[in-house]
């Protein structure tokens, strides 16, 4: 699931100094269990690096990278939603402000490169995020003032409409 771009960056950049001691120093993979941190490109001879990020039960893993510019043919990154071998978000080669969130407390990130290709530079920031309770439903009675969102929950609603009906969605101002 992709995250809103502003939230992970505000959180990561505001805490960067405090947690600088737990940031990875460029190792080729490993298991990361800190509540937040960073890892970056490995410059040695290995061509596949696998980082598995583990958070406490009840949390999800959020990762973000400010800039990614990999060749796709010679090197790329793969993000898996869980332990190694889990569902993949696919081959990721480039972009600005990329962010992803796991569905559980585990996420795996792999970096692949061809042996004759120099390692590209990248930074990946990660942190644990408390899972949010989800509310789902279906409704067909569209009277005035339905309140769909509840505190500390996200909502997913299916709205069944007649072809001639319009829907207007609004949100109260955020405080």
From TrEMBL:
Protein name: Carbohydrate-binding protein AQN-1-like
UniProt cross-references to CDD domains, sorted A to Z: CUB
Keywords assigned by UniProt, alphabetized: Disulfide bond, Signal
Transmembrane segments: none
Record domain CUB: where: 28-129
SMART domains referenced in this protein's UniProt entry, alphabetically: CUB
InterPro entries named in the record: CUB_dom, Sperma_CUB_dom_sf, Spermadhesin-Link_domain
Domain of life per record: Eukaryota
Chain segments annotated as coiled-coil in the UniProt record: none
Signal peptide segment: 1-28
Keyword Signal assigned: yes
Any one Pfam family match given in the protein's UniProt record, by short name: CUB
